[in-house]
Amino acid sequence: MSLLKANGVSKRFGGVQALSGIDFTIEEGEIVGLIGPNGAGKTTLFNMVAGTLPVDSGEVLFMDKSITGLPPHQVCRRGIARTFQITRIFAEMTVMENVLVAQIGNRQKLPQSDPESHALELIDLTGLKGKEHVHAGQLNLIDKKRIELARALATGPRLILLDEVLGGLNTSEIPEGVHLIRAIRDQRNITVFWIEHIMGAIMRLSERVLVLDQGRIIS
Questions:
Q1: pLDDT score at 110
Q2: Phi-psi region for residue 132, left (φ > 0), alpha (ψ -120 to 50) or beta?
Q3: Close Cβ partners of 22 (under 8 Å, ≥ 6 residues apart)
């Protein structure tokens, strides 16, 4: 089943063409990478899929239904979650509270008694076990990225958009991050679409890679 499809998607900022005629399809169960130089339009494309930016022309389809023009919270409820290159956590909340808040948007409607145990499961999965009661603002960059990932998973997505989730990790931590991304797909049955600049990681893990340059997919 085609989970995500872009048909001729374009975006301009003022007089600059940021994306031009983007066409691609992501099948359910895939891990698909998105690479390209800085300024190629990768995050802009993610923002348009997630509803953060409006599409100027073209259409975005999710599970064969148009999500073009939907606001981010409605896109999330359809089953698309994302992380951000610059983390957007609630610094004054604990790790647990951050994940619990994200469950408000869970499309699977968890039972009233289940949210905390589900949050603990995701905290463990993302490597934050033992830190659930630590305020998020006190954690280092890597752990803040783990919170972002746990929050995205807490919404119960079918597709997750990862924006440089391995950025800032040292050489010993990258394999652990790669293992986690694979586990998200293999154990959680979540399709993965991710931007990454660590070529060794994205080439090793992705089944397909889209190359974006100057607002166009060139390979």
A1: 54
A2: alpha
A3: 6, 8, 9, 10, 45, 58, 215, 216, 217
Please tell me the distance from the alpha carbon of residue 52 to that of residue 89, in angstroms, as a whole number.
Answer: 17
Q: Is the pLDDT of residue 109 over 90?
A: no
For the full predicted model, state whether its pTM sits above 0.90.
yes
Residue burial 15-24, b: 16+ Cβ < 10 Å; e: rest: eebbbbebeb
- Longest CA–CA span in the chain (Å) reads 52
164 near 85, Cβ under 8 Å? yes
* pLDDT band at 105; cut points 50, 70, 90: low
Cβ neighbours of 159 (radius 10 Å):
23
Q: How far is the C-alpha of 161 from the C-alpha of 67, rounded, in Å?
A: 15
In order of 44, 105, 116, the CA distances from 86 in angstroms are 14, 21, 26
CA distance 33 to 30: 10
